[in-house]
Design brief:
The protein is α/β, with parallel strands linked by helices and 508 residues long. Among the domains are: 239 residues, 3-Layer(aba) Sandwich (Rossmann fold), CATH 3.40.50; 68 residues, no CATH class. 28% of the residues lie in helices and 22% in strands. It is built from 16 helices and 23 strands. A seven-stranded mixed sheet has the order 3-2-11-1-12-13-14, sandwiched between helices. A six-stranded mixed sheet has the order 7-6-4-5-8-9, sandwiched between helices. Strands 16, 17, 18, 19, 20 and 23 form a six-stranded mixed sheet that branches. Helix 13 links the parallel strand 13 and strand 14. Helix 1 crosses helix 2 and helix 2 packs across helix 3. The radius of gyration is 23 Å and the shape is globular. Keywords: Phosphopantetheine, Phosphoprotein. This is AMP-dependent synthetase/ligase domain-containing protein. It comes from Cudoniella acicularis.
Length: 508
């Protein structure tokens, strides 16, 4: 997905009601006050860019939301207790319309990844007591397998053309934020990198809090990444795009994104930022001509996803501003900032978190630190994590970082504190990275080789070779396998009894 920024004119009230509100009300407000304002650009064809893009303004988008709400009520009745509707579909405008249409009709959407195992789908559907699945046409291949395991009511989702090109009656929504802040907005899943994925349920208040942090001004002489970035998550895209008046530029919904298609898209529209996958990053690192074209059309590339070879990232970062934002299932994308002193093209692997978030780094061992948030009532409206977990005093992310050798505010990601590979995830999925070292492996210099393998079956094993100490007559491993698995035995952290009640993130 690409994005283009628009300069705000007059007062912010022209674009935002000026108070915390639910997304539905903000969209309705903009459809009334500035109906021609651009919300998104959408490819006319699903398989090629030759036909160009269609501009979707806020009046169009509000109409699509009304159509989604009316369609749901017509076929399912009015929701009574925010019942769950599961959805897996192509990356198109229907995601945003269905999310807000479900809110109007009294439901919540469960957004599922197309890369789950059947066990993962079953677990999520059971957890949320989901009885209905919304299915697009053409039907994604994994849905048939899901339906053999679960008796679900199936409702065929109408086409993009239906939602955008038909005039739908206004669907009233009269709730005020003060009365519905704790009502559920939608559910989405964690990546499942450490086991079965689990569901995160966002309330209206969570979304409003995320929108609030997207509006935090950066310190003097700094730039905010959040103003540039509209991450791939439909909910985060909605919050950030609506709040920062950033138009989304959708990719082809019927084609697998790649570097060539990204270049093709920029022949038919303009954009400031492109969100790319690790696979595209690697391809650009090997194709200087294509990289040069993109650097002439874009200001920034943002890579989302698993690690890619450092050489590829270094090559790309030489030609264009290149960002690798930190992401957490429960924190989302905390705002990051940049100044010229950060030397972004040399230090792209480092994160500079906005000081207004109050992020802390607790030392684990050696040079490794874990990202924490300690509850602070003054920062309550900037921290969605404490809306998700209102009864905890601290949040342990489980994500490890090491400090920059000379810039105290810069931190490099070093993986998860408890990195494991999940046997519930297909080995072909993006989460399967045999070449990636866990942080524990990186800590131990004597480790010569570690190879993750699967022998003709969906089961995971790991072969580890540990260097021996030649000074001993009877060589023995310097590092035990148990120490590697456990991440070391001497975590230099305050005793549990002396620390605030905390919530440990599990990126399941």
């Amino acid at each position: 997905m690409n994005a283009k920024s628009h300069k705000k004119t007059k007062s912010n009230a022209e674009w935002f009601p000026g108070k915390r509100d639910v997304l539905v009300n903000i969209v309705n407000y903009r459809a009334r006050k500035c109906p021609e304002a651009l919300f998104a650009e959408y490819p006319i064809s699903s398989t090629a860019y030759d036909d160009g893009y269609r501009e979707i303004n806020y009046a169009d988008f509000a109409n699509a939301v009304n159509g989604a709400a009316s369609w749901m009520e017509e076929h399912l009745g009015r929701g009574r207790n925010f019942e769950t509707l599961a959805y897996i579909g192509p990356n198109d405008i229907r995601y945003a319309a269905l999310v807000l249409g479900a809110v109007k009709a009294g439901y919540k959407l469960l957004l599922l990844s197309p890369e789950n195992s059947i066990a993962a789908y079953s677990n999520l559907l059971d957890l949320l007591n989901c009885k209905t699945m919304l299915v697009p046409d053409p039907q994604p291949p994994m849905i048939s397998a899901v339906l053999t395991e679960h008796r679900l009511r199936v409702l065929a989702v109408l086409s993009v053309d239906y939602f955008l090109n038909h005039k739908h009656p206004y669907y009233p929504y009269k709730k005020r934020f003060e009365n519905v802040g704790l009502e559920l907005l939608l559910a989405f899943q964690t990546p499942g990198s450490t086991g079965l994925p689990w569901a995160i349920m966002w309330s209206r208040e969570c979304a409003a809090t995320y929108s609030s942090i997207a509006q935090i001004d950066p310190p003097s002489r700094h730039e905010s990444y959040d103003r540039l970035m509209q991450p791939a998550s439909p909910l985060v895209s909605l919050c950030s795009a609506i709040t920062n008046r950033t138009a989304l530029v959708y990719p082809l919904s019927g084609a697998v994104p790649n570097a060539r298609l990204l270049a093709d898209s920029l022949k038919y529209t303009k954009a400031d930022v492109a969100l790319i996958s690790p696979r595209i990053t690697t391809a650009l690192g090997k194709d200087p001509k294509l990289l040069n074209f993109l650097s002439s059309r874009l200001k920034t590339l943002i890579v989302l996803g698993e690690p890619v070879p450092v050489e590829s990232r270094n090559r790309v970062a030489k030609d264009i501003k290149f960002l690798c934002p930190y992401r957490s299932s429960e924190l989302g994308y905390p705002p990051e900032i940049h100044s010229d002193a950060d030397s972004i093209r040399q230090d792209w692997r480092y994160h500079h978190f906005h000081p207004g978030l109050g992020i802390e780094f607790q030392r684990v061992e050696g040079n490794l630190h874990e990202l924490w948030m300690i509850r602070d009532r003054k920062l309550e409206e900037r921290r969605p994590i404490f809306k998700l977990n209102p009864h905890v005093d601290a949040f342990e992310s489980g994500d490890l970082f090491s400090p920059h050798p000379s810039h105290s505010n810069l931190w490099a990601s070093r993986g998860r504190a408890l990195d494991i590979l999940s046997p519930t995830k297909p080995l072909s999925s993006p989460g399967w990275s045999p070449a990636v070292e866990s942080p524990q492996e990186k800590m131990h210099q004597p480790l010569k080789m570690a190879e993750k393998t699967s022998h003709n079956k969906p089961a995971i094993s790991k072969v580890v070779t540990v260097a021996t100490d030649p000074s001993h007559q009877n060589p023995k491993p310097i590092v035990s396998l148990e120490e590697i698995r456990g991440g070391g035995k001497n975590h230099e952290r305050a005793p549990k009894s002396n620390r605030p009640t905390s919530h440990r993130q599990s990126n399941s």
